[in-house]
Write a structure and sequence with these properties.
globular, Zincin-like, 3 strands, 43% helix, three-stranded mixed beta sheet, alpha+beta
Amino acid sequence: MFEVSNERFEELASSALAALPPELAAQIENLVVLVDDQAEGRSLFGLYEGVPLTKRSPISYSAVLPDRITLYQMTICRNCASEEEVMAQIQKTVIHEVAHHFGISDPRLEELGWA
């Protein structure tokens, strides 16, 4: 287990978001990224909650709260032995959850090596 402060974890998460390709980042709509300790009752690195872009329409998607990606700091840190590993896991998790925002399923992410 490698511990990082909450502030440092948030910095690493911000860096992972900033590292997304600009053409991809420009397509993200109504999304917030949060950090929590761990998922209740589950061992997750991250969780996407919302309506994927592929399921939205002007009729069914208006005046809604932002989609959420939650990164679980304790779970990520528990599975890492260095800050470099924490950063790599945050990057992989951000890419995985942003992919869900774009409507990409877990089976497809497994095929691509991002599960």
